[in-house]
Amino acid sequence: MKINVSNKQKNLRIQALDIKKIVKAVIALENQRCDEVSIHFVTTKTLCKMHEIYFNDPTKTDCISFPMDDRDDKIEGLDYRILGEVFVCPQTAIDYAHQHQSDPYRECILYVVHGLLHLMGYDDLEPALKAKMRKTENRHMKNLEKLNFLTPSQKQIL
């Protein structure tokens, strides 16, 4: 599986190897087929601009997901599934963590999990769907905690 990680912000330390482990763990627990996925860490300004362009909403947000290949898409002669792209704003995680006395890195990873779940078809627009998605997010965060993936390593800082 090819996992692309880019970091265009300087407010929170991001280690590509850590993010790749997290992405692999989430996709494996969901039993999804994925050949390629991209995770981008961007500034508040960038994510607000994307939110405005793609969702006609200029307000601050934590993450945006762009799904590519649906798990049921079948393209003749092509056996390669690109899950999509997730754009995450670490500054939003930092702000939230300061307001709630929590860990900004853990909050940022929650945004990665949330974005990945959107790529895999989860939705949170209706109360019942939102409850299901939150339950799934919690399951993934507990799994990542068990794997000791919620503490950043000191390797390969982007």
Radius of gyration: 15 Å
* Structure annotation, total helices: 5
- Can you tell me the CATH class? Alpha Beta
What structural class do the secondary elements suggest?
A: alpha/beta
Order of helices and strands: EHEHEEHHH
- Strand-residue proportion: 15-25%
- Largest sheet entry: 4 strands, mixed
Overall tally of structural domains: 1
According to DSSP, the number of beta strands is: 4
Structure description:
The protein has 158 residues and is α/β, with parallel strands linked by helices. It has a single domain (2-147), classed as Metalloproteases ("zincins"), catalytic domain (Collagenase (Catalytic Domain), 3-Layer(aba) Sandwich). It has 5 helices and 4 strands, in the order E-H-E-H-E-E-H-H-H. A 4-stranded mixed β-sheet has the order 1-2-4-3, sandwiched between helices. Strand 1, helix 1 and strand 2 (36-41) form a beta-alpha-beta unit. The model has no long low-confidence stretch (mean pLDDT 91).
